[in-house]
Amino acid sequence: MAATVSTRSLTGTKSRSQKVNEAPRARKRISKLSRSRARTVRSARTTKRRRSRRHYERFTASSFTDNSYDGDVIAGEDPVVRRAALDALGNMNGTVLAIEPTSGRVLAMVNQQLALSSGAQPCSTIKLSVALAALSEDLITKDTQIALGRRSRMNLTTALAHSNNAYFEALGRKLGFEKVSFYAHQFGLGELAGYHIEGEHLGTYPEHEISSKLGGVGKMCSFGEGVSMTPLQLGAMVSAIANGGTLYYLQHPNSPDEVANFEPRVKRHLDIAPIIPEISDGMAGAVSYGTARSLRVNFNEEEILGKTGTCSKAGTRYGWFASYAKTDVGRIVVVVFLQGGRPTFGPKAAEISGRIYRSLYDHDFFAAHPTDTANVKPVASTQQ
């Protein structure tokens, strides 16, 4: 027996050309779904464009400059420290401040016009003040876990190392504006940091909590919203952390004679010695594995503790990094403040600080010296 198989389609041409007629109700439903889908697609595209515009920030300031800082007064500065700061800063638009934390002597101040200005938003460096306030109030220890969501918790060490905004917003709300403001002023914000330093301007600290539309006390404690801080104010506060709690007036000698006759001047003693170890791990963590780890690209011979800050305002981006070398000799506080556009941010300031420490180390700055202004007996003083 034989079988014959047809190669023609099992569906004839007539059936292929048949038109399917939906019921009026079905056609109405299909048309409605089609219009709904079109609106959804258009809405998604619009939302995407809006999100793109929202997250794209346009900067008008430049991160670079050709200023040689010839107007700086340098006769009383340490030449080794100044050269290290100048070389590390390069052509970045910013300033470098180096301080001896055991006396308040300014060892170098590159771009003095910017360093002595009225300052800028402190960004995340404000978190040092907030952390000290919370520790002073026994609100937390370095290991206290704070809930940041249904499944997220964090302690102070991790929050400082990674500069977690949600943690410090929560901490600020727990403290309240009055306590946050009180401790900020105790640590030197809102007042001149220098002792008769010509040209120094005053940073500002608001008398009242900023509007809730701007984030209230939470944003004040995470980004420094509403606050203007100078490099000198930040340097004086970090110097107090580095030396165990003495807030010195910063002094910038203008001649070799002023260096030879230098006398430290104490502004006030802060009761923070017992809590300094509580923030040290977080500041060390920032350099070891956190937001300031770019410092280690250039330097890792000595332990450095610090805090970064990055934020922007009115077309200008700010990059902060304040740190100190935890060494037996040659202790130094370094503050780098940058302003400009997209290349400007906290980790860049940390990288510059690493270059400074590298140069100082290579010039035996951290080796024992025959004389040290730290041995000069400090005198209490009230600035007139």
Please give a structural write-up.
With 384 residues, the protein is an alpha+beta fold. The longest helix has 32 residues, at 24-55. It is 38% helix and 14% strand. It is built from 13 helices and ten strands. The strands form three sheets. The protein has a five-stranded antiparallel β-sheet, sandwiched between helices. A three-stranded mixed β-sheet has the order 5-6-10. It has helices at residues 13-16, 24-55, 79-89, 112-115, 126-136, 156-162, 165-175, 177-186, 216-222, 231-243, 256-260, 276-288, 346-362; strands at residues 94-100, 105-110, 146-147, 153-154, 246-248, 265-269, 304-313, 316-325, 333-340, 379-380. Helix 5 crosses helix 7 and helix 7 packs across helix 9. It has a single domain, classed as DD-peptidase/beta-lactamase superfamily (Beta-lactamase), CATH 3.40.710. The model is unreliable at 4-17 and 372-376 (pLDDT under 50).
